[in-house]
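Give me the fold.
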Amino acid sequence: MICFAARQIYAMPVFDMLETALAKKWLLPPTLKLRLITRTTYVGKIFNMTKHLALHTSSNLKSSQLRAFP
């Protein structure tokens, strides 16, 4: 829970930057709908990137290295 909250706090400037850029580029009003779509898309993309990174990293480990972790 603490790690999740820390990531969310550190992502706030990124969220603000993305929302501002989208609002200026497409002349959208900064509404709750824009905020939810932007943040959900960002979190989904980051989650997929970390998932794929973890899968590719673990596939490069030897089986003896994997047995060390429960």
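The helical segments are 2-25, 32-59, 63-67.
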